[in-house]
Amino acid sequence: MKYKTITGLLAITLLAGCSSSKKVVPDVPPSQLYSESQESLQSGSWQTAIEKLEALDSRYPFGAYSEQVQLNLIYAYYKSDDLAMALASIERFIRLNPTHPKMDWVLYMRGLTYMAQDTNFMQSLFNVDRSDRDPEPAKSAFADFKKLLERYPNSQYAADAQKRMYSLKNRLADYDLATADFYLRRKAWIAAINRAQEIQKTYPDTEAARKSLSIELDAYKKLGLTESAQRTEQLMKLNPLP
């Protein structure tokens, strides 16, 4: 009975996938198609906008709307949570338009897209701590926001990028803290100390840096390094947790 139920669910899923296949976009003038895509974007009809923009992109790759169509596709893919397509579109745009005047926005969108990749749906839904999850998307987002600030310090997106970098810095520090704690629990004392000190060096103004001191202290005590443990205790007194 369970096998039949699963089979039925799979069949429904396959039918749903077939029924949601993309519609054929009418062959209308590019100006009309672009206008319709703009209306879909403004109303938040992301999938409809994507269908029309993709049609424009494939039918008129060198048309008057070409660059803006690519930019709009980046935004529509991002808003529809098709992050892989958003990143692919961003890479394509950067390759074809390396000096475009809206490159600050493109970098900003790539940072946002990597941040969205880093977000875990189940974590958001149930508020589950997953600081030990793969930090690579967060690192990529941080690098893009940093690049935006370095290249376009007067960009209208700079202030928000800086705020997001602060959040990402704490996210990356928490990951390293979870790693240091993992080493401590596995009795890899030297590895725990090295990771804790790396946190303190790279992210000195984070809560994770202060928490890492207790991991470092435990490891020193396990190794019998009394002087190092005492120095760490002094640091803990100078950098108390809130």
Automatic annotation (TrEMBL):
Membrane topology label: Lipid-anchor
UniProt entry tagged with the keyword Lipoprotein: yes
Coiled-coil regions listed: none
Keyword terms of this UniProt record: Cell outer membrane, Lipoprotein, Membrane, Palmitate, Signal
InterPro entries: BamD, BamD-like, TPR-like_helical_dom_sf
Localization in the cell: Cell outer membrane
PROSITE patterns: PROKAR_LIPOPROTEIN
A Pfam family of this chain: YfiO
SUPFAM superfamilies associated with the record: TPR-like
Domain of life of the organism encoding this protein: Bacteria
UniProt domain Outer membrane lipoprotein BamD-like: residue ranges: 27-235
Assembly information from the UniProt record: Part of the Bam complex.
Biological role stated in the UniProt entry: Part of the outer membrane protein assembly complex, which is involved in assembly and insertion of beta-barrel proteins into the outer membrane.
Similarity-based family: Belongs to the BamD family.
Protein name per UniProt: Outer membrane protein assembly factor BamD
Organism from which the protein derives: Vibrio tritonius
